[in-house]
Write a structure and sequence with these properties.
With about 90 residues, this protein is mainly alpha-helical. About 85% of the residues lie in helices and about 0% in strands.
């Protein structure tokens, strides 16, 4: 395998790990934990386009925007689940 193929595999593996850990992080008490993965994706995109000089075109933009939107929506869904569990716990306590 060439070095570029290994690099792509590493990037995809890292992305899968980030998308896998996002739901549990977004359900924690502090909403800051759920912001970690979207911030990592924004940082990686800024690095790729700013420092590594990856050309910004439609396909490279989609590669950054799709995981970013996915994690933001997952973050929102996780916060809704957290608040629903909190509300259910408050009703049981009363």
């Amino acid at each position: 395998m060439s070095e570029s193929t290994l690099g792509i595999i590493r990037i995809l593996a890292g992305l899968v790990v980030l998308l896998f850990i996002q739901p549990p992080l977004s359900r924690l008490k502090s909403p800051v934990w759920g912001a970690i993965v979207p911030l990592v994706i924004v940082g990686a995109g800024a690095y790729a386009f700013g420092v590594a000089k990856v050309p910004l075109n439609f396909s490279s933009g989609v590669i950054v925007l799709v995981p970013l939107l996915w994690t933001l929506l997952d973050w929102r869904r996780g916060r809704q689940i957290y608040h629903a569990k909190q509300a259910a716990g408050d009703k049981k306590a009363s």
